[in-house]
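notes to self, project folder thing:

trying the whole complex as one job this time. last attempt i did each chain seperately and stitching them together was a nightmare. two parts in total, labels are on each line so i dont mix them up again. if this works i'll redo the older ones the same way
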Amino acid sequence: MRSRLSHLECAACGRTLNADALQTLCPECGLVLFARYDMASLRRAHRDELSARKGRMWRWFEALPVLDPNCVVSLGEGATPLLHAERIGERIGAPRLFTKDESGNPTGSFKARGLSVAVSKAKELGARSLTIPTAGNAGGALAAYAARAGIPADVFMPIDAPITMRREAAYYGARLHLVEGSIADAGQAARKAAGETGAFDVSTLKEPYRVEGKKTMGIELAEQFGWELPDAVVYPTGGGTGIVGMWKAFEEMEALGWIGAKRPKMIVVQAEGCAPIVRAYEEGEPRADAWENPQTNAPGLRVPSAVGDFLILNAVRESGGCAVAVSEEAIAEAEQAMGRYEGVCAAPEGAAALAGYLQLTDNGVIERRESVVVFNTGSGLKIPERLK
Amino acid sequence: MRSRLSHLECAACGRTLNADALQTLCPECGLVLFARYDMASLRRAHRDELSARKGRMWRWFEALPVLDPNCVVSLGEGATPLLHAERIGERIGAPRLFTKDESGNPTGSFKARGLSVAVSKAKELGARSLTIPTAGNAGGALAAYAARAGIPADVFMPIDAPITMRREAAYYGARLHLVEGSIADAGQAARKAAGETGAFDVSTLKEPYRVEGKKTMGIELAEQFGWELPDAVVYPTGGGTGIVGMWKAFEEMEALGWIGAKRPKMIVVQAEGCAPIVRAYEEGEPRADAWENPQTNAPGLRVPSAVGDFLILNAVRESGGCAVAVSEEAIAEAEQAMGRYEGVCAAPEGAAALAGYLQLTDNGVIERRESVVVFNTGSGLKIPERLK
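result (full assembly):
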């Protein structure tokens, strides 16, 4: 197994950087760095051979950025099930509705993928301590992988984050800092602390490797659909690394000949009380202004601004998708439907995605005969007060 | 894919029964029924072909009891990671210590395996409603699979079960009945209700198919160790289906030529405040008397008597294993170690297993150089008040 990582490249201005040291944002324009691979060489690692390997996310080692397999910090993340949402589908006449259920990941959310890669790469590049701002789930994931790697971690979380998430991060031995406000305020506190202590900040898309973990959701989607892709992907969007990672995966897989040119419509779902990407989408803007006074009971959607906004909006538009906001009531109803009809314990963010799908089929924007994957990004068990 | 299910056989008196109708306990002696397979035919389903299939637990379809693949009710259970417990191992000089981490199963525990099979088979055999007594996790699992199958479920749970587990079962739409006392009292209430309503009771080992799901933990262990088996398996034991199922798997796999004659020492861990199997093991008894006034903070270990006691004790003795009780303090310490050093969010039962392992290496009963698998049977996220 040999990673074909080649270099880093700014996704906005195109500047290239060496991948042999810790990097954050583009030193030129301050935007997002992407890992780039030697595609000619990667083409020799055959898709079906990688797919047939035992293991989960790290089956795709050649297309991931860690060079030394001994640096991989894994808890068994990825390779999550694609579940046919048969009973909800029957109720609305949608026979090809699926849930990609990320709740069985270590630490109970899709955040495990990105943080397994980011912590592994940080370990390889010699980071001595790590820090993260989080709405909740990413903090638990960082804390778990950092514990496994033996690297100290500082987690900055809103003081009103769900109690299970607060306790989880501390349980893994991270230093937990509770912050007044939203994840944006936690981000400021994390940056300040990192400046003082020299800790490496693994904020979403502010370092190049979390998105590489999220990329594997896109690879798995293709794999699970027999190397085609569904007609639409409905994704609850806070920081947006999931959308950005999947879009990157599709591009890389096409370049490798793993898939053809077909892309799913990429559909962003946000909460009505915090919908910066939806607003920018509707207004035709290339970037999204920060959302004032973000309010939603879905912690992962309470993200007022995203450094990767331009990449999210680009994926939505290029794919012919859209961005839609849903109400708290619709989220709660969809949450119940996931439990009652599918046996899936949905996180509120996953429920929001289902609510978005239902809204778009009602409007006729998505047709019911289309094959659609709704992402449940985490486990509802982490917010038991919502289980009704 | 064709299941090689042949008939049912009493594990105690050997009486055989037809497998084409719902069955509970042996009508002759009142003990445990096992599913039996046409082994000559099953031998033609090659181990490596099954292992190479996509999917998880249901890769072993031929060796599982559901005849019609359309009756399979699955949420993506099984194929859980085997994690090297490297940092705990380093601290105590044990280089081959592993955790089989069941926490990523649907509903956050190993109970998903057994209930996926039991609900699938009950669906195939036409059960109209299901009922279960539970310490907590099995109730959530039954509720989820029953929801997915569209079969009503009644869950009987001690009134002091962890709140996340109570809410979870209700969330999936099961009728939740809270009962004063332990799982034994919940069992009485469930039986009474089943007698009145005709619901099918899926109590541990009181129907023949949950154990078939647990069997897959034994198959996976062999698969993950390259079709050999580790030197010892340390298992937290309440009703004991895990031990019984793995032992059955080893016997079947040897008969099929999948593995050789080597067996791991099967090691039962219970809590000091509820250790009926440990007491029977120490006293040389073939069965275990019910434990009076069971007390432990590990809900899954608060099981005062097990209908499969004779099977558990048999596996422990035949394998040269042992049974050991651990204190609540040792459980809490091991729980912290799993988080701090391994990044695994251990259920208290899984922590008890680690505590048992540590006690036995201290005593020299297990040698530190031996390859040992400690089962973490569930996610600590379901009892957030324990996360410290």
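what i see at first glance: Chain B is about 40% helix and 15% strand.
need to look closer tmrw
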